[in-house]
Design a protein that fits this description.
It is a single chain. The chain is mainly beta and 120 residues long. The chain has one domain: Glucose Oxidase, domain 1, CATH 3.50.30.10. It is built from two helices and seven strands, in the order βββαβαβββ. The protein has a seven-stranded mixed β-barrel. A hairpin with a 4-residue loop joins β6 and β7. It is globular and about 35 Å long. The protein starts with a strand and ends with a strand.
């Protein structure tokens, strides 16, 4: 299995081990409804909007969080640390097209968080 780097950002909460899961993109507040209590367990949530209310349940269920906006002092980063969820903030992702449901790996072992797609 090969890994293809698709982006990087600032690590807001570290993990020694890589975080693996399927990507769930939240681009609008309506997309949160797609994360029910059982679905979110092995998801890496990719947030592409600022200030989305109602992220508490997805945060509690997500394996990891990637946000394309904000920094390590933003509200989402603080929540990720509080819930002890690996998190990358201000991530520059090459393209969001076609990422939904893809297997991804987050490397949050250092100050720069890296995002990879698993290629089979």
């Amino acid at each position: 299995m090969a890994l293809l780097k698709i982006g990087e950002g600032l690590t807001a909460f570290h993990s020694r081990d890589p975080v693996k899961g399927k990507l769930k993109i939240i681009a609008t507040p309506e997309d949160i409804g797609g994360l029910n209590s059982t679905e979110g367990e092995n998801k890496i949530v990719l947030v592409n909007v600022a200030g989305v209310a109602g992220l508490m349940v997805p945060l509690l269920k997500a394996a990891g969080i990637i946000c394309t906006r904000g920094g390590i002092a933003s509200h989402l980063a603080i929540l990720a640390r509080e819930f002890r969820r690996p998190c990358i903030m201000g991530a520059s992702i090459d393209s969001l097209k076609g990422l939904e449901g893809k297997n991804a790996v987050m490397d949050v072992s250092g100050p720069t968080g890296l995002v990879f797609l698993e290629e089979t």
